[in-house]
């Protein structure tokens, strides 16, 4: 009888030239909550993916409950009792919770009404045992993120997992939902389950973990007990240097009002109200942060303000000009820049080179095209200057941008947007998936924009980021602005409550705008 | 979200069960660069070999068959001029569908657009019988482009405003166009003195494109080559070409940069149809000299292969259209030894299949199995 | 009344080849693979049936041969799309071109010869007393019944079994299915081949029952109409049954008009099914413009397990 549930030794995994895991050793005792700490790109997910059979290690050995095991597929991992709660849930959005939970079941081919009823009851009882509640018979995509995660956990447990991996489980949750998750985890621990949680959030580690392993750049740096460490120490281990904690935003007087939004009503994709009569203002030299759980109208807000979708009702005034059904192009010309949510999906064209990607917004200008002919030489020179200025590391101007690292892609995107000297920049989750260095670079670019007089609308799920950078924080929930907090008055617990829709802050939410 | 979405060389293993038995494994690398000419050539050869097997099964000597085809297509000045004659409409249609494919609009309606172009050009001769002579050719060409372009638009409108898959619409319209052609040449436009021949009366000399030398080749060939040059230039150098590049590479990002996607789809489909219509008008005024039953032996479908073989590069289409044109002419010449001319259609399908399979296969590499053993 | 009965009977016989092909297409698309090879596979199915029947005069062997030949083409499509991850649209187009050419090549020797075939019919005398139904369904050939049977079985297979659940999961979210231990490639191969076999049966029916005489390109775009009907039928086999008969009816209607010597030229009547397809699809698109698309989410997308997501 060994005390270790998982032992991984000398694990190496490379992707082409990149070494994602370099001789990593990782052990987890039975019945503990073990945190695997590391920043984005440290190799946490890779290690966990090998444990769950998605990737195969190039070399190294894995033992589960003391037996050397070869995990060649998710199925084999499951048979060993390993279950993973993925960051982007592995649920089929069109199936109901029940169907998702029983998806892997092979027995009972015929599934009539009575079979369903029986299963439903069985699963309801099962889920209740762990205090996990969610709608059973609604397609998953109707469920909130927290509910989806509960389905994912029940699914894992139902399939008989006794080692459960949580991959960045709180990244999509409100603070309240996160607390609920930690309670669940403790409940599971009482039931004798072994858990691994991967994260880069130090507070979470200190809240739930018994033991902590720290990874950095594909290597295992340390194994520590929670009692024996502090947040500061962990931060240093994770990043490899002192983290510049809570830097000061230089105070600048607000300038003129750039954007005034009143009673904005926007319908989303399926005709549902995505934004319900919201209003706010953005000034020059101001970063306005929007906090909220994804899917509460942030995407539609950005799309409406960049002309991608039209609003049904309300007033939007940009630099004293009343906008009505603006086109994307007219808003670009009026000085609105946009860092979209998913840079490879909507920000860059992965197969095209640097120059073509930089030309996205400016190719209509006289400097870039003459008589509708592209000024090839001039554009190349301009592109070269830009990538030098923004420190984009690329082999040459023509290699497809999908080959750049995430950080360099984001810098390229910023280079393009900032080069237009925007009056207002709308940035959605600008640091998602970036490592600490690139995140810092992005933050600095936003602060510089603020200094030069641009207004910034920063929409992010990372509450720390919003609180760190914003002069003013709007909390959005269910298409409505739940509250507006100034930088000094911002309090994480209160924002959490607002994000979850539990509280409404009754305050004048925008200055009475002078419309005419 | 994984941390390194951009990691190159995301190698993918496809065979896991061959360990121990076979010490190598195939790895898939979606970004591996391949020589742009080798794959089409090798694929064509493989396709020819595969079809040779069928020919053998059918009790014939493939070398005789292929020899006959090559000789028919390129063995004489008549053969060569016939090949070029077939290459002309193929080139124009391929240029049209190629432009649409560049922005992922699956126009397979070139056949119908070609027929409409032919009808349009003929309509000029029928409804305007007394124009001054030199006006005819320009009018016929323009009518062909407009008819073909409108037919293309009929595909684009359901796609942009009603979310209807353009593959289906464009194909349905092919059948409609074919029936319309049949109606015209069998009923109202039939030559009353044509001994029941399903076709219009012969055009007057002013309505015919001038020929080159003593062959059946005509100015259409020149028009096609000019069209290729124009589009090569437009795509590479202009703002419009850049917009298409963007739309092709990432339509979502293109919308974010202010490009009106629907407008471009409508325009591209009109151009795509217009080019096929141009081919149709050249066919009636330069080759058939009348509108008749079966005016297109499937040029619109064959053009798809011409475009893919050329990897959608307009300039390369010149060569692939001559190659496929030769295949068609060769297909006719095997009729003398008792094989159907649809031989060439079968070869075309096999070549296309081998081409896309070959393109993907070339991204795999054999690597020694490692780890875990 | 008589006209209605004749029309309905004609709708069934014109609708059955469509239905076979639609059902095959549904199986393909439900696992996330677009199969535009329908037309080519139907033609190969038809020409194989024709040749084998002329050789053996055995209906059962002919049936098997049609299944085998279409399974072969299905295997090619599956290999190219699933293992090689090539563009499914181009692969389907290539299969159609190849099928059209190859069937013409094979059929050259048998073109024009009428098949001395008599397909057994199932007489249901107990249906006789029911006015309309009795006359229409009382004396239907076995393959029309087979097709109805396949549609019903497919319905239960898709909605009432564990396989059906896997099928939907593989087509909507292959990565999830993989994690859940459902073999994505296995399900895709199996259903692409099975679906192609149904398309082959469509060709078989066309030549053995509908018009027993090989003509080059005799499918006349039915494969493409079937692809459109998949959307119309919302990927549901029972809706497909109704849609296919409806379109079969339109086809038959054109034919009826022709016999009645209506003043409309037959060419325009023959256009009805094609134009109806476009109009119906436009109607469906317009009606569902605010609804989320219901097609399988991973339709046309190859699956890589070790892809970074």
Summary keywords:
heterotrimer; B: about 375 residues; mainly alpha; three-stranded antiparallel sheet; 3 strands; about 65% helix; globular; disordered N terminus; C: about 300 residues; ABC transporter involved in vitamin B12 uptake, BtuC; two-stranded antiparallel ribbon; 12 helices; about 0% strand; transmembrane transporter activity (chain B); ABC_transp_permease (chain B); transmembrane helix (chain B); membrane (chain B)
Radius of gyration of chain A: 25 Å
Per DSSP, the total helix count of chain B is 13
Count of discrete alpha- or pi-helical segments spanning 4 or more residues of chain A: 17
H-E string of chain B: EEHHHHHHHHHHHHHE
* DSSP, total strands of chain B: 3
Largest sheet of chain B: 3 strands, antiparallel
Nearest-integer average pLDDT of chain A? 85
Q: Would you report the number of β strands of chain A?
A: 22
Uncertain segments of chain A: 508-516
CATH class of the domain at 1-81 and 162-180 and 188-241 in chain A: Alpha Beta
Taking the alpha carbons of the first and last residues of chain A, their distance comes to: 79 Å
Query: In whole angstroms, how far apart are the ends of chain B?
Result: 31 Å
CATH second-level architecture of the domain at 1-81 and 162-180 and 188-241 in chain A: 3-Layer(aba) Sandwich
Task: Give the full name of the CATH homologous superfamily of the domain at 1-81 and 162-180 and 188-241 in chain A.
Answer: P-loop containing nucleotide triphosphate hydrolases
């Amino acid at each position: 009888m060994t005390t270790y549930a998982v032992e991984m030794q000398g694990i190496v995994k490379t992707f082409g030239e990149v070494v994602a895991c370099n001789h990593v050793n990782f052990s987890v005792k039975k019945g503990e909550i073990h945190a695997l700490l590391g920043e984005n790109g440290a190799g946490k997910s890779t290690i966990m993916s090998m444990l769950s059979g998605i990737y195969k290690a190039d070399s190294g050995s894995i033992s589960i409950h003391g037996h050397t095991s070869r995990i060649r597929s998710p199925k084999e991992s499951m048979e060993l009792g390993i279950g993973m709660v993925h960051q982007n849930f592995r649920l089929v959005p069109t199936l109901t919770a029940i169907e998702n939970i029983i998806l892997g079941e092979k027995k009972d081919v015929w599934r009539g009404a009575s079979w369903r009823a029986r299963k439903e009851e069985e699963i309801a009882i099962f889920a209740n045992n762990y205090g996990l509640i969610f709608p059973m018979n609604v397609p998953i995509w109707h469920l909130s993120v927290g509910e989806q995660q509960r389905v994912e956990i029940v699914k894992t447990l139902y399939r008989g997992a006794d080692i459960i991996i949580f991959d960045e489980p709180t990244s999509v949750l409100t603070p309240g939902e996160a607390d609920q998750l930690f309670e669940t985890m403790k409940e599971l621990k009482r039931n004798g389950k072994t858990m691994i949680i991967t994260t880069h959030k130090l507070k979470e580690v200190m809240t739930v973990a018994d033991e902590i392993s720290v990874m950095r750049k594909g290597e295992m740096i340390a194994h520590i007990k929670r009692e024996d460490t502090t947040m500061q120490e962990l931060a240093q281990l994770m990043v490899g240097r002192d983290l510049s904690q809570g830097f000061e935003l230089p105070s600048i007087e607000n300038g003129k009002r750039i954007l005034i939004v009143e009673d904005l009503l926007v319908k989303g994709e399926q005709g549902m109200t995505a934004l319900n009569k919201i209003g706010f203002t953005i000034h020059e030299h101001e970063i306005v942060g929007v906090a909220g759980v994804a899917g509460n109208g942030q995407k539609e807000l950005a799309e409406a303000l960049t002309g991608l979708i039209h609003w049904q009702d309300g007033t939007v005034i940009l630099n004293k000009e009343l906008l009505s059904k603006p086109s994307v192009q007219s808003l670009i010309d009026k000085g609105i820049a946009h860092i979209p949510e998913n840079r490879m999906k909507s920000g860059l064209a992965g197969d095209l080179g640097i120059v073509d990607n930089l030309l996205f917004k400016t190719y209509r200008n006289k400097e870039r095209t003459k008589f509708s002919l592209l000024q090839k030489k001039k554009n190349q020179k301009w592109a070269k200057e830009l990538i030098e200025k923004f420190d984009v590391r690329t082999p040459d101007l023509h290699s497809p941008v999908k080959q750049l690292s995430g950080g360099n892609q984001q810098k390229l995107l910023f280079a393009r947007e900032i080069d237009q000297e925007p009056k207002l920049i709308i940035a959605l989750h600008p640091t998602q998936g970036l490592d600490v260095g690139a995140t810092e670079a992005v933050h600095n670019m936003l602060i510089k924009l603020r200094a030069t007089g641009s207004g910034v609308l920063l929409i992010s799920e990372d509450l720390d980021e919003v609180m760190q950078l914003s002069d003013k924080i709007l909390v959005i929930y269910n298409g409505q602005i739940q509250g507006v907090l100034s930088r000094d008055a911002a309090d994480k617990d209160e924002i959490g409550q607002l994000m979850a829709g539990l509280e409404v802050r009754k305050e004048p939410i925008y200055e009475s705008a002078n419309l005419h | 979200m994984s941390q390194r979405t951009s990691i190159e060389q995301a190698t993918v293993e496809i065979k896991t069960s061959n360990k121990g038995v076979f010490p190598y494994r195939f790895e898939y690398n979606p970004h591996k660069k391949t020589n742009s000419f080798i794959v089409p050539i090798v694929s064509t050869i493989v396709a020819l070999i595969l079809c040779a097997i069928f020919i053998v099964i059918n009790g014939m000597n493939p070398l005789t068959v292929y020899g006959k085809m090559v000789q028919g297509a390129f063995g004489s000045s008549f053969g060569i001029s016939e090949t070029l004659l077939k290459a002309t409409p193929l080139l124009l249609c391929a240029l049209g569908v190629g432009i649409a494919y560049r922005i992922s609009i699956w126009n397979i309606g070139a056949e119908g657009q070609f027929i409409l172009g032919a009808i349009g050009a003929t309509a000029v001769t029928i409804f305007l019988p007394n124009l001054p002579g030199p006006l005819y050719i320009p009018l016929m060409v323009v009518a062909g482009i407009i008819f073909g372009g409108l037919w293309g638009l009929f595909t684009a409108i359901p796609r942009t405003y009603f979310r209807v898959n353009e593959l289906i619409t464009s194909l349905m319209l092919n059948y409609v166009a074919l029936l319309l052609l049949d109606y015209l040449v069998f009923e109202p436009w039939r030559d009353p003195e044509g001994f029941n021949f399903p076709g219009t009366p012969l055009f007057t000399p002013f309505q015919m494109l001038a020929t080159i030398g003593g062959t059946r080749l005509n100015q259409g060939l020149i028009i096609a080559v000019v069209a290729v040059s124009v589009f090569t230039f437009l795509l590479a150098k202009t703002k419009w070409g850049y917009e298409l590049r963007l739309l092709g590479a990432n339509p979502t990002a293109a919308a974010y940069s202010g490009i009106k996607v629907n407008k471009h789809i409508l325009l591209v489909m009109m151009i795509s149809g217009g080019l096929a219509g141009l081919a149709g008008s050249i066919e009636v005024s330069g080759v058939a000299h009348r509108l008749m039953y079966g005016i297109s032996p499937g040029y619109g479908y064959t053009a798809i292969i011409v475009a893919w073989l050329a990897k959608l590069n307009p300039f390369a289409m010149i060569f692939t259209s001559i190659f496929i044109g030769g295949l068609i002419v060769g297909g006719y010449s095997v009729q003398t030894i008792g094989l159907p001319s649809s031989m060439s259609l079968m070869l075309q399908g096999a070549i296309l299949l081998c081409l896309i399979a070959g393109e993907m296969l070339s991204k795999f590499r054999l690597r020694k199995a490692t780890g875990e053993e | 009344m008589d006209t209605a009965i004749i029309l309905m009977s004609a709708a069934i016989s014109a609708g059955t080849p469509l239905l076979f092909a639609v059902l095959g297409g549904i199986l393909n698309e439900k696992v996330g693979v677009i199969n535009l090879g329908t037309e080519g596979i139907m033609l190969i199915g038809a020409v194989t049936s024709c040749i084998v029947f002329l050789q053996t005069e055995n209906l059962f062997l002919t049936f098997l041969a049609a299944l085998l030949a279409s399974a072969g083409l299905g295997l090619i499509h599956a290999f190219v799309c699933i293992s090689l991850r090539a563009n499914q649209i181009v692969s389907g187009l290539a299969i159609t071109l190849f099928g059209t050419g190859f069937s013409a090549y094979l059929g050259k020797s048998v073109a024009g010869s009428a098949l001395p075939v008599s397909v057994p019919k199932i007489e249901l005398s107990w249906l006789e007393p029911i006015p309309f139904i009795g006359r229409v369904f009382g004396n239907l050939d076995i393959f029309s019944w087979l097709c109805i049977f396949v549609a019903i079985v497919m319905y239960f297979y898709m909605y009432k079994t564990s396989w059906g659940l896997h099928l939907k999961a593989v087509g909507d979210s292959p990565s999830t299915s993989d994690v859940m231990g459902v073999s994505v490639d296995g399900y895709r191969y199996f259903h692409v081949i099975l679906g192609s076999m149904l398309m082959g049966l469509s060709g078989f029916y066309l030549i053995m029952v509908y018009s027993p005489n090989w003509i080059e390109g005799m499918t006349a775009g039915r494969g493409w109409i079937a692809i459109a009907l998949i959307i119309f039928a919302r990927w549901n086999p029972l809706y497909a049954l109704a849609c296919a008969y409806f379109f079969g009816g339109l086809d038959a209607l054109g034919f009826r008009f022709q016999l009645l010597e209506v003043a409309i030229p037959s060419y325009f009547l023959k256009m009805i099914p094609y134009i109806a397809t476009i109009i119906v699809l436009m109607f469906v698109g317009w009606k569902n413009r605010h609804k989320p698309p219901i097609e399988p989410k991973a339709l046309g997308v190859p699956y890589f397990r070790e892809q970074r997501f």
